[in-house]
Design a protein that fits this description.
By secondary structure, the chain is mostly helical. Helices cover 81% and strands 0% of the residues.
Length: 85
């Protein structure tokens, strides 16, 4: 199978799951849970590796959902965080 077709199929699946109000709530939770916008580095190299692994999973979801949708999701999250502060 052609990787481009396979990637488009994956992106379509991820988009179907995460590009709706409930899916966005899940992604928002994952972003907050892993501290996606925080500092990933720690004094312990194993903790740094663990943090980078968590961020990689969220990055994959955001990439497969699509950059336009990812930017929208990030902006919505930032707006909500500003309101909550």
């Amino acid at each position: 199978m052609n990787n481009t077709v396979f990637d488009k199929e994956k992106a379509s699946l991820y988009s179907a799951v995460f590009n709706n109000p409930d899916g966005r709530k899940v992604v928002d939770d994952l972003i907050n849970f892993v501290g996606y916008f925080g500092e990933g580095f720690a004094t312990d190299p194993y903790s740094t590796s663990y943090n980078c692994g968590q961020r990689r999973v969220v990055t994959r979801i955001l990439n497969l959902v699509g950059m336009i949708h990812a930017v929208d999701m990030v902006n919505e999250l930032k707006e909500r965080q500003m309101i909550d502060e």
